[in-house]
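Researcher: Good morning. I'm working through a list of sequences from a screen, and I'd like to move beyond sequence-only analysis. For each chain I'm collecting a predicted structure so we can compare shapes side by side. This is the next one on the list. No need for commentary yet; just the structure.
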Amino acid sequence: MKKNSSHKTLSIVKRISITNIGIFIIACILSIVATLKLNVEYHIDRDAQMMKVYISNTLSSIDNTLKDMGRVSLIAFSDQTVQDILKGTDYSFDEKMENEEYLKKLYSSMISIRDDVRGIYIFNNEDMVFYSDTWNPFLGFDWNVESFFQDVKINSDLSTNISGCHMYVGTLPEGFNYTQTYTKNIFQENNIYLVRPIRSFSPFEVIGYIALRTPILTLQKICSNYLEDNISYIVADENNNVACSSNEKIISNNLEDIYPELLEQVNGAKGSFSLILNQEKYLCAYQRSDYSNMLLITLKNYDSIYDELSILVITCIVITVMSALFVLFCAYGFTRKNLKRLTDFSLDIQNFQPGDLTRQYDVGYMDEVGVLKDSFNKMIRRLNDLVISEYQAKDELQKAEISEQKMAMLYLKQQINPHFLYNTLDMIRLKAAINKDTEVSQMLMKLVSFYRLSTKVYDSMVAVRKEVEMLDAYMSLMCYRYSDIIYRSEIEPGALDIEIPNFILQPLLENSLMHGLKDRRYQGTIILKIYRNEQDKNELNIWLIDDGIGIPDDKMAELNAYNAKDSEALYRVQTRTEGDRTHLGVINVISRLKLYYQENAEVIYMRNETGGTTVKIKIKTASEET
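Model: Good morning. Structure tokens for this chain:
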């Protein structure tokens, strides 16, 4: 098929340049991906550590604020007048006013000094005896504070201990929600209360309670001061009630009700984890205060983390593009400069003509191009030598063709002669039969059969049956000649159809006859046995047994040694053997067996105990499966 010469291909310079820039871009992309992945992991770890620091500082500030608030309540223990006011009962109106005035002077200064304490409430075991609040609602002592008093008493037994006080989160007392500031600002409406039971010195028993109020606005200011704007937070008490949060909607709710999956991840005193909330992924960190038992959870959206990395991504892409363009320019120029010798050589070869067989190129540097030019020069010289040798060998080739024709004619002549011989013998046999010379006719028939079987040399493999028929014909003729020779064969029927190389038994049988029985005036017995091994049906055994004079030990050892040689070694021995027909026939048989079966065939000579020689042929034939 004719190639399309108009098909355009990229030059090797462009291909190498494009390959280099492609590899560079892939390497840059992989580097960017690895860098971004490492930076994301680094930023996540860094943000988690920073959030833990923020949490620790925020909780520490919250604890300090609560601790300072708790110290205000200690005045109720140290002031004897406060103790007496709480112990007394059935005060007159004037006495009540005096008591309230005393307590007001005692605690009002505390509220004015401490910005975090917004209200102080003192109760005896039955009712509120004093209150001081920055909003200063006019309630008087007629205000029903029963529900507020019950909350104070119930929460005075909580496990949280802040300077001897117990903390709980609740709304403003009833009657304080009278301004829009409280009703519209959830951070003012919800408060943290510190409650301390007041005990008398003697007897040591609870004589009242003091409660201090601070709005969760205090917690909001602390968290806003320490935490970054893009970090959300949740502050919960020991019962996991949300005291303060950047999300106003969840304040005063329980974490177990709104974010159970978040609470499940909170194990231990502190830690960090990733969590999906409301279909968004967050990096979360938490810590529970050992002092106030308050839980602070911070959440940072992964989108904000990725936004922080956007500048890095853009920078990497710009650097990669600029680097790729620079590498492409440099790679193209450098490759073109270094491959100029190759491109020039390629163009020169493309225009090569038959008349340029004498051309030789200057090698120059022995680099790849130099090696290519040197190889091309050697090829040109070799082509010239081949052209010269072709013309020189032309006459020899013609002579060889003539010689081959002569050999073919000789081969045809050799093919004709054997057929002419046994056809002529068969004609003589018919003539003898017509003349009623039965013995001569039978002898000629055996001779014709032998020649007909022995001249089928084109079949390299024949069945055992054919070899036995040829041996029977041969020995019938020998028995006519030597009437004192007894020949019999014992053939297993199952072995008759096994194929073996042709004409391997006749030379061995002839040796037994001519060398074993010759010196006994051709008197004796020759037995042919062919059978398969009972244990291995693929093993064929052929025995030739004679009761002749036997073989000397040295010659028998020499014959058996041929089994250790391969077919090529036997052929070399055969070419050096002259005159000894015994050796020549045996070597020929063994070499052919080795050629077909390699180590799976052997010919062994043995001395019989009663005299004579046994030749054992063992062949490992191929199985049907093989």
